[in-house]
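Hi support team,

I've been running sequence recovery on a batch of backbones for a student project. Most finish fine, but this one hangs at about 90% for roughly twenty minutes before it completes. I'm not sure whether the input is malformed or the queue is just slow. I've pasted the structure tokens below so you can try to reproduce it. Let me know if you need the job ID as well.

Thanks,
M.K.
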């Protein structure tokens, strides 16, 4: 199996000018292990870039423990639902180790993007690339779990 490319980081995806503007409104936060960053279905009003530590994205499964969908670490975006209506979390997130991160107020970032269409386009493309990467990763994991042995191999 071919390893997927790394998740698009803000550093690689955004032009320096836009990165600098975003970082001016970033707030450094420390999140203790076991802390829930957000719950599925709640209002999505912020997002994070992980500096150190690990965050698990999970999905509610009735009658069972939440299913971990993906683990995110250094330089990865936690949260994309803030950008798209209806602006509610599609998953939950929990710090599985102590986490240090940059936290961004979603309303302030959307306002910056509205004021500067080039920045808005760059942010939307970055978040879109992250989403596409995560969908490809999920697809690969599902194929590994459920596809019959040899399915998908060329004949």
């Amino acid at each position: 199996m071919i390893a997927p490319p790394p998740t698009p980081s803000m550093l690689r995806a955004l032009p320096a000018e836009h990165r600098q503007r975003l970082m001016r409104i970033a707030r450094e936060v420390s999140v203790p292990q076991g802390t829930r960053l957000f719950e599925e279905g709640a209002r999505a009003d912020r997002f994070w870039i992980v500096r150190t530590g690990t965050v698990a994205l999970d999905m509610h499964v009735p009658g069972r423990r939440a299913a971990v969908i993906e683990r995110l670490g250094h330089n990865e975006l936690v949260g994309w639902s803030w950008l798209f209506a209806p602006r509610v979390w599609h998953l939950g997130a929990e710090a599985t180790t102590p986490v240090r991160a940059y936290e961004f107020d979603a309303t302030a970032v959307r306002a910056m993007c509205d004021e500067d269409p080039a920045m808005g386009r760059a942010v939307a493309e970055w978040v879109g690339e992250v989403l596409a990467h995560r969908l490809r990763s999920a697809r690969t994991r599902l194929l590994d779990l459920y596809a019959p042995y040899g399915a998908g191999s060329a004949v």
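--
Follow-up from support: It reproduced on our side and the slowdown came from queue contention, not your input. The CA atoms of residues 40 and 90 lie 5 Å apart. No action needed from you.
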